Amino acid sequence: MKIGVVGAGRIGGLIGTLWSRAGHEVLFSSRHPESLAGLVEAAGNSARSGTPDEAISFGDAILLSIPFGELPEFGRTKQEALSQKIVLETGNPNLKRDGAIADSVLTSARGTGAYLRDWFPGVRVVRAFNTVWDPVLAKEAHRAGPRVGIPLASDDEDALRIASSLVVDAGFDPVVVGDLDRAREFDMGTAVYDTGMSGPEVRKVLNL
C-alpha cells in the first residue's frame, strides 16, 4: 500500500519505518523534506520524502501525526485532498502545547474522536497509535506475543479493517473498539493509556 506520513516525528517516523520495512511504499513529509534524509535511509525499501501535500497526494492511507492543536486548521484546509483517503490520526491534546483547543476537548467528556468527526467531515478518519509511547513501540514491535495492543476507533468499517491490517504489519495487535465516539475509552487518562498492555489485556480492560 502507498502510505503518506504527515508529521514524521517520533511516532510518524517510527511507524512509517516499520511499514516501509514491511514492504509498503512510504512517503515521509516535512515542510523541509531535505531534513528527512536520515529517516528515509533508515526506513529503507522504497521510502522517500516530500512535502505534506505530496504525501497526501501519494498515499492511499495517511498517517497524520501532528500536534493536536493543529488538527482543526489542517482538517479545514485539507478536507478535499483527504476525502478519498484513510487517515490514521495519532495525536493527544496537550494543555501546555495546544492551549484552548486541548482544554475544550479535555473538559468536554466527548473524547477526541468526536472532535475528529467535526474537524474532518467526510474523511475516513481512524483514531490510532495514540496510547503507547514511541520507545515502547520501537522495542516491542513484532515481539513473539502477545503483541502490544493498539486501540482503534472509526465510523468507517472498511477503514477499520485496513487500519487493523496496517497495525499488524507494523508488528502490533489491532484492538477495534468501535466508532469515533468510543475513542474516549482509550484517550489520555484512561485505564489503557500509556500502559504498554498487550492486545488481550486491552480487550479485557475495555470489555471487548
Helix share bin: 40-55%
| Residue fraction in strands | 15-25%
SSE order, as H and E?
A: EHEHEHEHEHHHEHEHEH
The CATH level-2 architecture is identified as 3-Layer(aba) Sandwich
Total domain modules: 1
Largest sheet: 8 strands, mixed
CATH topology (fold) name: Rossmann fold
What is the CA–CA distance across the termini? 29 Å
| Structural class computed from helices and strand pairing | alpha/beta
Q: What's the rounded overall pLDDT mean?
A: 96
Strand segment tally: 8
Spell out the CATH superfamily.
NAD(P)-binding Rossmann-like Domain
In the predicted model, the low-confidence regions spanning at least 5 consecutive residues are none
**At the first level of CATH, what is the class?**
Alpha Beta
With strands numbered from the N-terminus, the spatial order across the biggest sheet is 3-2-1-4-5-6-7-8
Shape verdict: globular
CA-atom Rg in angstroms? 16 Å
